[in-house]
Design a protein that fits this description.
Layout: E1 2-6, H1 10-22, E2 26-30, H2 33-42, E3 47-51, H3 59-68, E4 75-79, H4 84-92, E5 97-100, H5 105-119, E6 127-130, E7 133-136, E8 141-144, E9 147-149, H6 153-164, H7 172-178, H8 190-202, E10 211-214, E11 218-221
Parallel strand pairs: 1-2, 1-3, 3-4, 4-5
Antiparallel strand pairs: 6-7, 7-8, 8-9, 10-11
Helix pairs in contact: 2-3, 6-8
C-alpha cells in the first residue's frame, strides 16, 4: 500500500512514516498543502492522510480541490480539531474518515487499511474446482472428469457450499443455516438424504471419492491425496 502523509509537523510525519514502513507499506511525506495537493494529483497513492491545519493550503481546501479535479483516492483526515462540527466539515469536504489527535497508531493503521479494502474491487468468483470436479456458477453447470452432473437446485447449493469450504469439515448446523436457511434443528434426516444423493451423483463410478463423512463432526469435500 502506498500512503501519502500530508503533515507540516515533521516529527509527527516521520513517526507515521516509520510506523507505516514497519508495517510493510510505502509512505511519502508532504510538508504543506500545495506540495501535498501536487503529489496527490501526480502520484499513484492508495490512501492519503491529511492534516487539517496545513500551511499554504489548508486540509479542507486541499481535499475539496482534489475531489473537484476528479481525484478519488481515499482520504483520512488527521487533526487536533476533533469536535463533531470539525469531523462533519472534513467529511463534507470529501474525506472518507476522520481521526482526532492524539491517536493510537494501531487505530490509524486499521482505519487506512479498511479504507483501501473498501475501495478495492471485489473479485467475483464464477468457477469452483476440487480435483476433477468443476462448477460453473454462472451457467449452473457441474462436471466431474469432463462428464456432466445433473443436480437439483438444493443439491447445487449444497455442493457449492461444500466446494467453497473444500478441505474443511462442515457441520450439520452450518449446512442447515447456509443451505437450508434454518436457524433451528428441524429434527429430520433432510441433510443425510441430500448428502447421500449428492454422493451418488459426484462419486459413483469414480475410483476416488471426494465427499466424506467425518464421524461425529459433519462432512468434508476434499481432493484425493
Amino acid at each position: 500500500m502506498r500512503v501519502l502523509v500530508i503533515e507540516d509537523d515533521r516529527r509527527a510525519a516521520e513517526y507515521m512514516q516509520k510506523g507505516l514502513q514497519e508495517s510493510g507499506h510505502l509512505a511519502e511525506l508532504a510538508g504543506d498543502g500545495i506540495e501535498g495537493l501536487a503529489m496527490a494529483q501526480s502520484g499513484n497513492f492508495d490512501v492519503l492522510i491529511v492534516d487539517r491545519m496545513l500551511p499554504r493550503l489548508d486540509g479542507l481546501t486541499l481535499v475539496s480541490e482534489l475531489r473537484a479535479a476528479g481525484g478519488e483516492t481515499p482520504v483520512l483526515f488527521l487533526s487536533a480539531l476533533g469536535q463533531v462540527d470539525d469531523r462533519v466539515k472534513g467529511l463534507k469536504a470529501g474525506g472518507d474518515d476522520y481521526l482526532a489527535k492524539p491517536y493510537a497508531f494501531t487505530e490509524l493503521l486499521a482505519r487506512i487499511e479498511a479504507l483501501v479494502r473498501r475501495r478495492s474491487p471485489q473479485q467475483v468468483e464464477t468457477e469452483l474446482q476440487v480435483a476433477d470436479l468443476t462448477m460453473d456458477l454462472l451457467q449452473h453447470r457441474v462436471e466431474r472428469g469432463g462428464k456432466r452432473v445433473i443436480l437439483q437446485p438444493r443439491e447445487f447449493r449444497l455442493l457449492e457450499y461444500l466446494m467453497k469450504n473444500a478441505g474443511r469439515v462442515v457441520t450439520r448446523t452450518m449446512l442447515l443455516e447456509k443451505v437450508w436457511e434454518y436457524h433451528f434443528d428441524p429434527q429430520t434426516n433432510v441433510i443425510d438424504v441430500h448428502i447421500s444423493r449428492l454422493r451418488g451423483k459426484i462419486d459413483k463410478g469414480f475410483a476416488k471419492p471426494l465427499l466424506h463423512t467425518v464421524r461425529g463432526a459433519g462432512y468434508c469435500l476434499r481432493a484425493p491425496e
